[in-house]
Each structure stands twice: as structure tokens, then as C-alpha cells.
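Continuing the batch. This is chain 6 of the set; chains 1 through 5 are on the previous pages. Same settings as before, nothing changed between runs. Recording input and output for traceability.
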Amino acid sequence: MKVSGRGVRNRSVGIRAWVRWLGLEKTVVEAVDAAEDGQVVVSVRPRYSQRDRCPHCRRRCPGYDLGDGRRRWRALDLGTKFAYVEADAPRVECKRHGVVVAAVPWARHDAGFTRAFEDQCAWLAVNTSKTAICALMRIAWRTVGRICERVSAEAKGKVDLFAGLQRLGFDEISIRKGQRYLTVVVDHHTGRLVWAHAGRDRKTVEKFLDLLGKERCEQIQLVSCDDAEWITRPVSERCPNAVICLDPFHIVKAATDALDEIRREIWNQARKAGDKQLAKELKGARFVLWKNAGNLTDRQKLKLASIQQTNKRLYRAYLLSQQLRQIYRVPAADALVLLEAWLKWARRSRLEPFQKLARRITEQRERVQAAFTNGLSNARVEQINTQIRLIIRRGFGYHSPDAVIALAMLSLGGLCPPLPGR
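Output for chain 6:
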């Protein structure tokens, strides 16, 4: 130990300090070398308890060969200089997984970076932008996607995401052009993303139910979704105790679509009859008819009053649409009575789109009423979908759905690792 002129004690740094600096665990440092360009190469080996283990099942296995010799893993930078961890990479012969490269405690399998480096990249991917990650860590954006996949896969193996699930929400989200969709499953109790997978069909939902298992499927009490059969049928077959609640948003949206179908029909009739003034007014009235009655401006109220005077059929469709929307804003007991009255009104309205909607709601009557009585909707799921869209936009799109799923699970599934050393 040395003492400087100012009385500050300077302690010589031992070789073991590199283990702490680079975030290495269960590792023995053999040597530290500095290249001419300033790069630092730390030669290491696993502790005896970590040697000759399968990277998949972590069982000790007999050695097979020396593999391709020594290799390097990039570690966290030391100031402005690159740092690498160098060690032998022998292969072992596992009875279950065959001949594989032996596991090392400082890095994940098939990774070219240390565990601390990947954890920091994953944390930055959740909390910062694409440009910031690439500039700070000095890696490509596609590399960040692969890192997130490895970190997410390891985190999911340590946490039981399906424990205690009782209230679930199902929905799909588009992630790329060309009908590229993800099916997402959200826990209503915690508000976290439970599962996501590429595709939006029955097989995708059945894949989740297979992972959930028969015993846990029987524990599901409530499921919110739209009335797509690729969701409702497998859920009703595999989850016998689950009550399906049709999402109010999709029911109201169906009424809005029926209203717009009537508006377009009347607009086309006016256009064919040569009534350009009426056609122009109907085309400009679209947003007036879609908007909530309480949010209309004075000008929009005048336009709506004009429709009431000149086009009784369109105004009747508007009232049907608004009435269905208001049903979801009253207590459950009143909503059930109002729904029955609305169905009678829609059936005798002589408006074919609303008559079809009335038949559709009647077929799903129990599921529509379940949304009233249980107060359940897909609002939490839509919130998760909005955050997934933000993740995609922040990364300027992703080529692989696996990268989107991995980053979504890290950010919205509670799997994000802490910063190294925190």
C-alpha cells in the first residue's frame, strides 16, 4: 500500500478485481493483456464446479473434444476501449442433447457477448431508442434483436408466467404489412403480457392452451375477446369454467360500421340520382355521425339537425348506433333491460345492417351480457397492443416476429433484467 503526497492511499489492483469490473461470475481470471490499439483481453476459465456442463440441462457431461479452440466474448467496455473475455470452448457429449459446446458461467449459449453485456443491451432496448443503443453499445440493431431473444428466453425459463391465471384477454395485433399478426394474451389481474405468438388462427390459441395445461385451463374464470371463432371456440372447449365476455368496443364498432354502411348506401343513391348537394353533405357528415353526441361542436350539431330534417332513415340509424353506445355506460341491471329494448328496436327498424347486427348479438347474447355483469373488456389488452406498436415504431420495424415478441415480453411481461451491478 502506498501513500501519496496528499494523504490519499492507493491500493494496488489485484487480478480478481477484473471479475467484478466485467460482471463475471463463478470465473477464475488467468491473465490480462492489453493490445496496441487499447483493447483489453481477459483470459479466464470456469471454476471447477462449472466445467464440462451441458448448456441446456446444466448437467455435468464427459468431454468430447476441444472444439474450435479458444474463443472470445465481448464484455462491457472499459471506458472508451473494447474489452473481451477469452477462454477455451471445449465440447461435451450430453446424453439428452448430444455433442454441444460446454456452458460457461459468464455468457449464454450461442452468444458472442458476456451475460452482463447482454443484460445491459436488453435494459437499454426497453428504456431507450434504437439510435441510442447502437451508438452506446457499438453494435448493430439486428444484434440487439437477437440479444433480446436470448435474454427473454432465459428469463421465461426462470419465471412461471402462467401461475395463478384466472382472467385473460385475447386479441391480435398487426406488426408488419402483408397480414403479419401476433396473438397476445394478457392477464387482467396484473395487467402484464403473459404470452405472444406469431399468427392469428385456432392453432395459435390452441398452442397457448397446450402450454397452459388442462389443470390451469380449468382455473380460468373469465376471458375477454371479440367474437372471432378462432378464439371463442377453442377457449370454450378447453376452458370449461371460463365465461367469455365479448369486448364492448367491438360491439360498438359493429354498430358504427352498420351506420356507415347505410350512409354510403344513401350517398350512392343521391350520386346516381344526380343530387350532388345531398351527396356532398352526406360525405362531409361522416365524422359527425361517428362522433360522441356530447363532443359535437355547434357547427356539427347544426349538420346533425339538418340530417334529422332531410333524411329520416339515416338519422334513425344514427340513433340506433348512439343508443347501443350509451347502454355500456349505465349499471349492469339497467344495461340488460336497455339491451333487450334495443334489440327489439333494431329488428323492426327496416335497416338491414342493424337487423344483421341484432341477429349477431342475439346469437352471442350470453357473452354480450357477461361483459355487462362482470365489467370486463379488452381495454387492458388494447393498452398492451398500443405499447407493442410503440416498441415497433421505436425500433423502426423488425424483420422477425421473434424479436418483437422478445422485446415485448421484456418490456410488458416483467422480464427485463436490471442493469449489471445494480
